[in-house]
Amino acid sequence: MLGKSILIVDDNPASRIFFAYHLQKKQFNVLEAPMGKEGLIIAWRDQPDLILFDPTLHDIPDQEFIHKLRNDPRTTKIPLIALSTDPGPARREICLKAGVDQYLVKSARALSALEEILERIFGPEGSTGNENKNKKRGLLIIFLSAKGGTGTSSLCANVAMSLQEAQPQARVVVADLVLPIGSIGWIVGYKGELNITTVAELPSEQTNADYFHQKLPIPESWQFQLLAGSPDPQQANKLKENRISEIIEVLCLAYDFVILDIGRSLSRISLPLIQKANLIIPIISTDQSTIEMTKIVWDYLITQGVENKNIYAVLNRTVGLEESRKLEAEKTTSFTIRTTIPFMGSNLTVANNLNKPITTKYPTSTAAMILKGWAQDILRLAEEIQANSPKESAR
Ligand SMILES: Nc1ncnc2c1ncn2[C@@H]1O[C@H](COP(=O)(O)OP(=O)(O)OP(=O)(O)O)[C@@H](O)[C@H]1O
Ligand SMILES: [Mg+2]
Predict the structure, then answer these.
(1) Least confident of 64-68, 167-171, 228-232, 323-327
(2) Could you tell me which residues come within 8 angstroms of residue 250 by beta carbon, excluding any fewer than 6 positions away?
(3) Is residue 355 predicted with pLDDT exceeding 50?
(4) Which of 6, 244, 266, 307 stands the most exposed, by the fewest C-beta atoms within 10 Å?
């Protein structure tokens, strides 16, 4: 990466040397600072193309370090990547809110994750000319159901959490597009003002990747960022529909995983999103009517150009029936059921009421294990999809 400079700010010499060595091998010009304050001085003086820092600096609090860089015109736009010794969600949230572009945790995968990010920012040949051109799109995953009450929103939030837990360095966003009232905010305990209607009110120049990275909340106990749904019918009526596809497009460029709950709202807004989703996850409950309605919705989607290869069907046993109905569901819909979620008794409702993920509230339950396996499956599929279409900028 001839000519591009990266400043590493890390008070752990072994770590600094390790990353400096690998970045120099990639032809980056590496600057190093063993302390935060020295890092700030070098950043302002030399204005590198990127700053990589461990937020667990001893001489300056993480938030202050980030704010100082972000608030100074010389460094406000420099990509800022945290490469942290601290895997906890609290520091991650603080750093993302304060304005870092990516938060990586030091682990066996950190170097490859960092290289991926650098390639996204600088391109394989180091061109910064058109950032989006070289940017890998995130995976668009859509949860839907043919009928209400099948567990779509609960599973959407819970699998997003498992995905983020399995890959802490990935950027995961959940967006709730269910109208007239989205319920993910209720499930994760978010009560703030920022939601799809308020974001759609803003001019598009404002709602760029940085805006979402910095403003979207990370609900307590959940780790992913949330774009909450419409809180009431009155706001739903005011929703500027024509902004939705643009907002989702920005999310796809800004995040590694964009997980949408569209519930059963098949509409002019949701159809174009379904058509470009990488994975469509219909949640099918075990009653015959839901199974048959899923078939009707799917037949319609096929006429709209949606393909079978993008489907990842999930059977959710919302009631404690003895029989599983997996075979009936597969026969009627002609899907392969990829994951079956067991009946959780009152556990899911209890976890939802406490705004906790299943994997946190009932970590040893079968459902928690299944959610983790499902997240791993999605990660595997994501790799396959991205390997088959590494640069999808033309979509
Ligand atoms: N596997 C399960 N075991 C037990 N209860 C479940 C299960 N799946 C869902 N539920 C319960 O079903 C109810 C509906 O869940 P949820 O709101 O996630 O469904 P939905 O499909 O998003 O509903 P809506 O159509 O209202 O958006 C919740 O009370 C939830 O706790
Ligand atoms: Mg729902």
Answers:
(1) 323-327
(2) 207, 208, 209, 212
(3) yes
(4) 307
CA quadruple 82, 86, 88, 94: dihedral, nearest 10 = -40
Q: Which amino acid is at 187?
A: I
pTM of the full predicted structure?
0.71
Q: What is the largest CA-CA distance in the chain?
A: 69
C-alpha 149 – ligand 1 centre gap (Å): 5
Judging by beta carbons within 10 Å of its beta carbon (0-12, 13-18, 19+), is residue 314 exposed, middle or buried?
A: buried
> Chain-wide mean pLDDT for the chain?
90
Check residue 117 and give its pLDDT. Answer: 86
Does the pLDDT at position 132 exceed 80? no
The amino acid sitting at 298 is W
Walk across the sheet containing 50-53 and list its strands: 29-33, 5-9, 50-53, 80-84, 102-105
C-alpha 285/C-alpha 315 separation (Å) is 6
Give the model confidence (pLDDT) of 264-277 as tens digits: 988 888 998 999 89
CA 118 – ligand 2 centroid, Å: 37
Tokens of 39: 């890092």
Tokens of 208: 């760029």
| Reported confidence tier of residue 395, pLDDT bands at 50, 70, 90 | very low
Which element (helix H / strand E) includes 349? helix 347-353
Which of 144, 147, 152, 154 to mutate for ligand 1's pocket (most ligand atoms within 8 Å of CB)? 154
Question: Closest ligand 1 atom, CA of 283?
Answer: 21
- Check residue 234 and give its pLDDT: 95
pLDDT of residue 322: 67
Ligand 1 pocket test, pick from 142, 156, 265, 318 with the greatest ligand atom count within 8 Å of Cβ, gives: 318
CB-defined site of ligand 1, < 6 Å: 145, 148-154, 178, 183, 263, 316-318, 341, 343-344, 348-349, 352
Helix (H) / strand (E) containing 351: helix 347-353
Task: Please report which residue ranges of 86-174 form alpha helices under DSSP H.
Answer: 89-98, 110-122, 131-134, 152-166
What pLDDT, in 10s, does the model give residues 22-53?
A: 999 888 999 999 999 999 999 999 999 999 99
**Rounded to a whole number, what is the distance in angstroms from the first to the last CA of the chain?**
28
Q: Which ligand is nearest to the CA of 281?
A: 1
What are the tens digits of pLDDT across the range 324-338? 789 999 999 999 999
